[in-house]
Design brief:
TIM Barrel; 417 residues; three-stranded parallel sheet; six-stranded parallel sheet; alpha/beta
């Protein structure tokens, strides 16, 4: 079996996707939250013209499609994704598949590998007891989830040694529920031997079949970075001094080592705090306070700050995008991604028009900080497959140089410096 790939392969990247089997997700907490905040959540749905869960309500096929992914193990989800990108489920053969045995093509160029970055989600929510007879929080240890993901990746490497997918996960944390000691232990366990170099990530990938891992004790250089998710109650810059001190230690560690963070930034999705509170925590304004103190932090403010909720006062839905663009022009390592957002009609062309509203020198900087991402399998709420998402990008009315920037050059700097 051929386990070796070149030390510096040419790569495309999916910078934002998930391996989410059903047992990873804390559905009971979410449903209990909805039950307690029924009126507010109903208003939020009504005031959001593009409410992302609306198609589930209208179309049984949507939920069947996403469950056909999430009812698998992490290993089988990886195989399903690869088979999808190779065109095994596609009935329309008029277009070449996203990936073949030689790699991928985009913008008139060939790439040897697709790097995917599954984002582990921290669903440990000890305060969210289910409104049920069995009022005990189901176990959702993020260390156990991370261990299962790493084992799936290792087994995928063994089962498909010639695969053109290189899998580089991000560790999930929700600092609200982590003590300073536990946070410090996680950083040491996951990132003491971390390297920002793509060549080192490839070396790890080529030796993966030799590794074994235990929950809370991953192999060296296993993770690419850290995933944050404010709608689960995490405030990026809290007022409480003890919480602030814990996060100052965390951000300082990440800035010093160059460890990238990816934070959720749209106003819908899985949420366990009231909408108005979530809007405060999720807003890029909250990250501006962090960046003032840690200006060299590598940060992907995801989904290009997409806002769906307009509210009774018909608030602006472009405010977060404008703030993200401002932060990108001001700080050297701030990025954004187009995950999930790319499902919308003309999303890529609209993104270009938005960037073109800036002065010319700032446009160049913006185009160098936008990352391609799918948010698969969650994007199946709005599109049929990972291949369909990729094709929406591959055949968008964008110049080839920009497609290559977004899917290869920019994420190469963010993930593989």
């Amino acid at each position: 079996m051929n386990f070796g790939i070149p030390e510096n392969p040419s790569c495309l990247f999916d910078s934002h996707m998930h391996l989410l089997p059903l047992n990873f997700v804390c559905f009971s907490a979410y449903l209990s939250f909805l039950d307690k905040h029924r009126a507010g959540e109903s208003l939020a749905a009504l005031a959001s013209p593009d409410y992302i869960f609306r198609d589930i309500i209208r179309n049984k096929r949507v939920i069947t499609n996403i469950l056909s992914v999430m009812e698998n193990t992490p290993l089988d989800i990886l195989k399903l994704l690869e088979d999808d990108l190779k065109g095994e489920f596609e009935t329309d053969k008029s277009r070449p598949p996203v990936m073949d045995s030689r790699g991928l093509a985009l913008g008139g160029k060939r790439f040897e590998m697709l790097v995917i970055t599954p984002l582990v989600m921290d669903f440990e929510l000890p305060e969210m007891l289910p409104e049920a007879y069995y009022s005990r929080q189901p176990a959702h240890s993020v260390e156990e989830q991370a261990h299962e993901v790493l084992e799936a990746i290792r087994q995928f490497r063994l089962d498909r040694p010639d695969s053109r997918m290189l899998v580089r996960p991000y560790m999930g944390i929700n600092p609200k529920y982590w003590s300073g000691e536990r946070l410090d232990d996680m950083l040491r366990a996951c990132f003491s031997h971390w390297s920002p170099l793509g060549s080192e990530a490839v070396k790890t990938w080529n030796k993966l079949q030799k590794y074994r891992t235990l929950p809370g004790r991953p192999y060296n250089n296993a993770f690419g970075g850290i995933k944050m998710y404010p709608p689960l109650g995490y405030d990026p810059w809290p007022e409480d001094s003890a919480e602030r001190a814990k996060l100052e230690m965390f951000y300082g560690f990440c800035e010093k080592k160059g460890i990238p963070l990816i934070t959720h930034c749209d106003d819908q999705g899985f949420r366990t705090i009231p909408l108005e509170e979530s809007l405060v925590y999720t807003s890029p304004d909250r990250w501006e306070e962090v960046l003032k103190r840690y200006p060299n932090l590598y940060l992907d403010i995801a989904h290009f700050g997409r806002q769906y909720y307009r509210g009774v006062r018909l608030r602006s839905t472009g405010k977060w995008q404008r703030k993200i663009m401002e932060l990108i022009t001001e700080y050297p390592n701030v990025y954004t991604d187009m995950s999930f957002t790319g499902v919308e009609n003309n999303a890529w062309e609209t993104m270009v028009k938005t960037v073109r509203t800036l002065p010319e020198d700032k446009q160049e900087k913006l185009f160098s900080r936008i990352l391609f991402g799918t948010d698969w399998p969650l994007c199946l709420l709005k599109t049929e497959s990972a291949s369909a998402y990729w094709n929406g990008f591959r055949y968008a009315e964008l110049p080839d140089w920009l497609k290559v920037k977004i899917a290869a050059e920019n994420p190469g700097r963010f993930h593989f410096r």
